Every structure is written in C-alpha cells, then in structure tokens.
C-alpha cells in the first residue's frame, strides 16, 4: 500500500482530523497514564500502513499560555508577525498554536539578560551566562522553561514582537500507529499514547502533545492537525514468516497494528509477543485483545514481564533470555523476523544484548559471529527497530 500522491495533506499542510475516542488504557490506580485514541481521517485521502507513524501538531495548554503572558506582562491581544508569515496574528494565538513554550536556550537567557531593567536581575543572569563550568550552566538552563525566566527575573521588559522572535516553532510529535487500515478502515487511525508529566525547577510540567491528546484536545471537532509519516518499519511481506515482537509500554502500539494486519489478511505465520510494564493488574495494555488473540491462535505465544509485581525487577530482555532456545529456532531455522519498539536508551540496547547472548549460547556462535549474524538479519530486513 503506497501513499496517494494526490493527497493535499502533509506535514506542511496537516489535515484537521476529528478525535473520536479517548479512553484510559491502563487502570486509574496505575502509576502511569496511557490513553487509547481513535481518530477520524474522514475523506482526507491520507493513507497509512502498519508500522507508519501519525504526526500531530499540538496546542499549548491554556493555563501555560496564561502563565507566560502574565510573567512577561502581556495582554495577549498584541499583534505579532511570525517568521515567513505575511499577516499578523494575536500574541495569545501565536503562543497557543505556533510557538514552543518549553525548554529554553542560552540565547534566550541572553535575551532576558539584555532586556532586564533591574541590576540585580542582570547580575544573576550574567553569572549564569559567565559560568565557566559548562555542565553547571547547561543544567541551570535545562531545568527551566520560558515561563520560569519571566517569573524569576520580573524586571524583563520586551515587546511582544521581540519576544516571539526568540521562541522556537512548536514542532509536531510522531506517534507509532496502533491500528491497521485493513482492520479498522482507511478513514480511521488509532494511537496509544503515554501522557507525560514531570517536574523541573520546582514546577510541574506537562508533555506538550501527550497532554494535549490525553486531556484537552476536543472530541468530535475537526481540530486535530495530523499527517502521516511513512516508515520502513513494517510486518513481513511474507505472510507465512514468523515474527517476534518486543514492545514494552507504549512500544506495543505498532505490534497491535501488525497483528491486526495479519488477521485481516489471513496470514499463517506465527506471531510471538513480548510485552512488559510495571504491574499486570494495572498496566496490561489491550489485555483482552491479546488474550483473545492467544486463544484464537492468532498469537502463537505471549510472554509478559512485570517489573513491580515481585521484589526483583523482570524486564522483557529477561523473558527473551529465558526463551532463548525457542527464539534462536524461530530466527535461525524458521526464517523469523525480530522487531523492537520503545525506549532506545536502555531497553533496545538490553534486548539486543540478550539476542547476542542467545546467538552464542544456543547457536554456538563466537561473539564475532554473533555480531555478524545480527548484522545479516538487519541487512535482510529481519531485524528492525522503531525506537525513541
């Protein structure tokens, strides 16, 4: 399935989709907040396939926009002109839909310093800018967002136009699609999103797009700007080929799509899912779907790792090692495919290390040959990662 070239919608011209369903995917008592979303693409002409991502342009939360306006002493009714724009826009609208109000840069700190009226504020900012320790300086800057500088250094006085010229453009976020168009229809798309909340500099922060989607994006309105980002990450074209999928947390998203895709095509290939999260009672995303797929034979095997259900932590890489002999057989004898989706910093690296151990332990390969084996799988498209 290829993208329709005549589709008028893209990253530079996103489609105003409708958010139809927003449902919590884990239990209310979970320490995590994950939402299942169903979006109507209407007659946009947007085409996606299993493994693709959906780009979403978020809006900044109204409470954050209000806080920034107050911190920099703006009303929000000021007219400003954004880069490459031919017409002016009200400041409140620009801060809501066009500009990033998150992390700041050293250049922005310099801007606030240069426009601070109070010698005390200038001195404090000069100390930051002149810090000879680059690590400490970076930590100070990384700990703050746009609103913090206005609140911490209240003497700053700038025009609305000068202010917006210092801000970066609000960028879209990409989310792995968790539905197959063959299964749900070409005009619908599902997402599985972890709502991000954290704290820096003593202030609670919200992930811009995840809270937009998970909390305040309006339901049933054509108010969700989206586009499709095509990917080479995809289930095997050979419907008889076995596939092993490793997707802890929201890394499960594309594999829900993969399995739906195979179900819709009547594929005969074996499907093995490794899923992991904190607790089975609160964090088993799409539990009934997976159990039904296992009962019907659509899913051949399901191995779950729950990190907080016992004194010692168990992760997907531990389950992969436990099943090492069978993993080796699926990959080496059966011509299987191996997919990973999720955290790039630790999980993906740990899973790859587990695979290399399996190649050595169950395949009798040397460390060098194990690495060569993995490289061959990558070259053949039988080892794929969608990590972030």
Structural descriptors:
388 residues, alpha/beta, Elongation Factor Tu (Ef-tu), domain 3, Rossmann fold, 3 domains, six-stranded antiparallel beta sheet, five-stranded parallel beta sheet, 37% helix, globular
Describe the structure.
The chain is an alpha/beta fold. The protein folds into three domains: 15-57 and 172-229, Translation factors (Elongation Factor Tu (Ef-tu), domain 3, Beta Barrel), CATH 2.40.30; 62-164, NADPH-cytochrome p450 Reductase, Chain A, domain 3, CATH 1.20.990.10; 243-387, 3-Layer(aba) Sandwich (Rossmann fold), CATH 3.40.50. The protein is 37% helix and 21% strand. The chain has 16 helices and 15 strands. A six-stranded antiparallel sheet has the order 6-3-10-1-2-7, with helices on one face. Strands 13-12-11-14-15 form a five-stranded parallel sheet, with helices on both faces. A two-stranded antiparallel ribbon has the order 4-5. A hairpin with a 2-residue loop joins strand 8 (197-200) and strand 9 (203-206). Helix 13 runs parallel beside helix 15 (347-361) and helix 14 (324-333) packs across helix 15 (347-361). The radius of gyration is 24 Å and the shape is globular. The model has no long low-confidence stretch (mean pLDDT 96).
Secondary-structure map with pairings?
Elements: E1 15-24, E2 34-40, E3 53-56, H1 62-71, E4 79-80, E5 89-90, H2 91-97, H3 106-114, H4 119-129, H5 134-142, H6 146-152, H7 160-164, E6 173-176, H8 181-184, E7 188-194, E8 197-200, E9 203-206, H9 208-216, E10 222-229, E11 243-246, H10 253-265, E12 271-277, H11 280-283, H12 287-296, E13 301-306, H13 316-322, H14 324-333, E14 337-342, H15 347-361, H16 367-379, E15 383-387
Parallel strand pairs: 11-12, 11-14, 12-13, 14-15
Antiparallel strand pairs: 1-2, 1-10, 2-7, 3-6, 3-10, 4-5, 8-9
Helix pairs in contact: 1-6, 3-4, 13-15, 14-15, 15-16
């Amino acid at each position: 399935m290829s993208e329709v070239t005549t589709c008028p919608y893209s990253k530079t011209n996103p489609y105003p989709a409708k958010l139809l369903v927003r449902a919590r995917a884990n239990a209310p008592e979970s320490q995590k907040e994950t939402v299942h979303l169903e979006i109507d693409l209407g007659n946009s002409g947007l085409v996606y396939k299993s493994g693709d991502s959906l780009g979403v342009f978020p809006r900044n939360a109204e409470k954050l926009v209000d806080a920034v306006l107050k911190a920099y002493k703006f009303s929000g009714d000021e007219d400003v002109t954004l880069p490459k724009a031919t017409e002016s826009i009200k400041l409140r609208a620009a801060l809501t839909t066009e500009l990033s109000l998150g992390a700041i840069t050293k250049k922005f700190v310099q801007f606030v310093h240069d426009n601070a009226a109070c010698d005390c504020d200038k001195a404090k900012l000069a100390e930051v800018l002149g810090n000879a320790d680059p690590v400490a300086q970076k930590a100070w800057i990384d700990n703050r967002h746009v609103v913090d500088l206005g609140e911490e250094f209240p003497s700053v006085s700038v025009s609305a136009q000068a202010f917006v010229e210092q801000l970066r453009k609000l960028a879209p976020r990409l989310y792995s699609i968790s539905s197959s168009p063959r299964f749900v229809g070409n005009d619908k798309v599902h997402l599985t999103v972890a709502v991000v909340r954290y704290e820096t500099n003593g202030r609670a922060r919200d992930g811009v797009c995840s809270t937009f989607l998970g909390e305040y994006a309006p339901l049933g309105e054509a108010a969700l700007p989206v586009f499709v980002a095509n990917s080479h990450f995809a289930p095997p074209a050979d419907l008889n080929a076995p596939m092993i999928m490793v997707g802890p947390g929201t890394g499960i998203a594309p594999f829900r799509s993969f399995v739906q895709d195979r179900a819709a095509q009547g594929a005969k290939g074996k499907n093995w899912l490794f899923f992991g999260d904190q607790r089975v009672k609160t964090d088993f995303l799409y539990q009934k779907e997976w159990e039904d797929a296992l009962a019907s034979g659509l899913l051949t095997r399901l191995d779950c790792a729950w990190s907080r259900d016992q004194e010692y932590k168990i992760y997907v890489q531990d389950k992969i090692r436990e099943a090492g002999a069978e993993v080796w057989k699926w990959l080496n004898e059966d011509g299987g495919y191996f997919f990973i989706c999720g955290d790039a910093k630790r999980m993906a690296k740990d899973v790859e290390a587990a695979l290399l151990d399996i190649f050595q332990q169950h395949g009798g390969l040397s460390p060098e040959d194990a690495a060569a084996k993995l490289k061959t799988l990558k070259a053949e498209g039988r080892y794929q990662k969608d990590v972030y």
